[in-house]
Amino acid sequence: MNRKQAGIILTLLALIVCAGILAARVNGQVDDGTGSLSSSLSFNKDSKDTTTTTTDYFYDSRNEREQTSSQALQNLKSIMEDKNTSKEQKDKATQEFQNLTMAMNYETRIELSIKSKGFEDALCLIEGNKARVIVKSKEPLTEKQSIQIQDSVTSVAKIKDILIEVK
């Protein structure tokens, strides 16, 4: 590696660090996706206190949902690309693929909308015509908060059947 390549690498590294610092200032604390910012970690595996924090719940549930959805999308894509699949099955798989993709998009948008209303964290699960929203809160939701969540779901996904839970 010559001096020019080393200079380029150091410049890129400096830009990455600056972007991280800027993101931290703009967005507040930076969460690396592990849920370790607001949860306490216990490194003692022999401890009898193995309760999971709500941050772990939201992270784990979101991760599980994404894995399940990506597996379903892969399966549908393989059906759509298979040459031995009938046209009816391909059309049905294409429709399911579109529905699942839209549901994933809606879930993300609803979660962001709810978080922007002042909630610490939220998880949205859409199944057909029903939405299940799980909100992180230490206290029970007020009627105003419930209406805000329902409005978010209705405005984004046009779903009226909404179940709201507090964790």
TrEMBL record:
Is Acyltransferase a UniProt keyword of this protein? Answer: no
User: Which residues are the signal sequence here?
Assistant: 1-23
Does the keyword Cell division feature in the UniProt annotation? Answer: no
UniProt KW keywords = Signal
* Protein name (Swiss-Prot/TrEMBL): Stage III sporulation protein AH
Which species does this protein come from?
A: Clostridium polyendosporum
